[in-house]
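so i finally got all the pieces together for this one. its two components total, 641 residues if u count the protein bits. some of the lines might not be protein, just check the labels. i wanna see the whole assembly predicted at once instead of chain by chain like last time, that was a mess tbh
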Amino acid sequence: MNVMDTRATSAMLYLDGVHVSFDGFHAINNLSLTLEPGEMRAIIGPNGAGKTTMMDIITGKTKPDEGTVLFDGVTDLTRLDETRIAELGIGRKFQKPTVFESQTVQDNLLLALNVDHSVRGTLFWRGSRDEAERIDRVLETIRLTEARNRLAGSLSHGQKQWLEIGMLLAQDPKLLLVDEPVAGMTDVETHLTAELLKEINKTHTVVVVEHDMTFVRELGVKVTCLHEGTVLAEGTIDQVSSNERVIEVYLGR
Amino acid sequence: MTPHMLTRSLDRSATIFLAVVAACGILIPLSNLLLPAGSFLQVPTYLVALWGKYVCYAILALSIDLIWGYCGILSLGHGAFFALGGYAMGMYLMRQIGTRGVYGNPVLPDFMVFLNYSKLPWTWYGFDMFWFAALMVLVVPGLLAFCFGWLAFRSRVTGVYLSIITQAMTYALLLAFFRNDFGFGGNNGLTDFKDILGFNVQAEGTRAALFALSCLALIAGFLICRAIVSSKLGKVLIAVRDAESRTRFLGYRVESYKLFVFTVSACMAGVAGALYVPQVGIINPSEFAPGNSIEAVIWVAVGGRGTLVGAALGAVVVNYAKTFFTSGVLAPYWLFMLGALFILVTLLLPKGIVGTFNAWWDSSKEKRAATMASAAAEDGVAEPKMAE
């Protein structure tokens, strides 16, 4: 399928007919998904539905067997590696919070800033006022200003989740992929995270994978339910959660 | 443990380390040369040579700590880069012998005459010039590390698999250098050196100068490593060590970072080998033995990986112990002791000597700070509480 010559779609992210199998197991099966610029989308679905594999495909960790994956209407993501895709402006938060535990909170953010990432650039790096201000702003947004000099490994679980979201902000990508941001969070933290993501969505396109239906409802955005590697239902939270098939495979009666 | 305290404690150990090495580099040669032989404070020449060897090992340990302690690359073949640097220096020293060899050939070293070489192999061209040999000390290990690393890191060979192929690399070189027709002296290696830059390698003055130079190289190596690990690049290296794929998703080309630091490290190991050879007077293929590289990793583990100072300290401590125990009745048991030491350190002191000391120092400091803070709180001065 040749869609490379012109801007094929106005979508920020465009997946069409994507297939991936691991040793005969079809993790992703004819998956199609379109995300408009500025949109926030929640992805739900049972375990093994292919949510994380979908993120792996978008970020270049896994190569699809067939199908189209376009970013920003022009870039074929299936040909690029993780580093290149990150440089293009796709940031990812992992399911398990992955921060650099033996470094301080502010160093974690410094590493995430989308500045020169070459060997020479980092070897001769001198901090600038602009970078320091950006880090300060992110620290404020994720409510970790007080903890800026603490080692990331000493943060609580919820704080680590926020730090990782903060690293995404510092990276300032066009598209943010956020995998289970509220797993293991208290109700208050969950609420604050929803507020934070809504705030981020004002300037960024966001994909959120989440199991917590209260949280998804609070986001109040379009929902896609995946099942066995394909889209089962799509629409508002009320439409999706009243869908017969969704209730059967995911929500339970 | 706040990072501020961490850097301060590192700065303190770095300062002590540099002062001690500089003092040794100046005082030991002076005492050897100026004080009358046999006087209490005079360091005998054999000890200068022995300690010079330790200093070279310390540089090797530093180079291993740079990649293992900070970037998580466990090379079990770093002895190969050390030996290659040593061979480059050995080749220069061989060509300085000239007509003073047993066979008196002005160009060919003795072993080549003995093996019926008619002319000098091209690999030996240029090694009669010191500057060329000195350049090769850096270029040969650096180039090998670059090519090896380019293939390995680009294919994302990591962890134990990388360690195994580094072992294979040094073993392959061991076998190659053992062969007489490889052209580097085969089994016997290179020895019977006479001069270095016109000075007799056996002379006390030359040995003292080589010792001082080794200390200088250790200081320079330490400062280079420290500059690297305390730059932003150092933070990226630690990020790669702790969460490699996370670093990649942030947009860092991890393989370039690994390649850079691996190559720098190999060059440092080469310099260590080049300083080692004139002080011990021989280089032969046994320097490539896989066991040597593993031993060097143990020095770093004992001293404390990721501390730089610890690596150098570990090299000196373990080698001092080796000299001490292998010269007595316990000699046959040295390898068992080394093995036991490694197991004990791994189980009881996973941070090594320096790492454990730093942790202890920081926690005791924190306790003192906490006591002071609570005393201040009792005086009615409210301390701002950290968000938990």
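DSSP finds 14 helices and four strands in chain B.
Residues 1-6, 381-388 of chain B have pLDDT under 50 and may be disordered.
anyway lmk what u think
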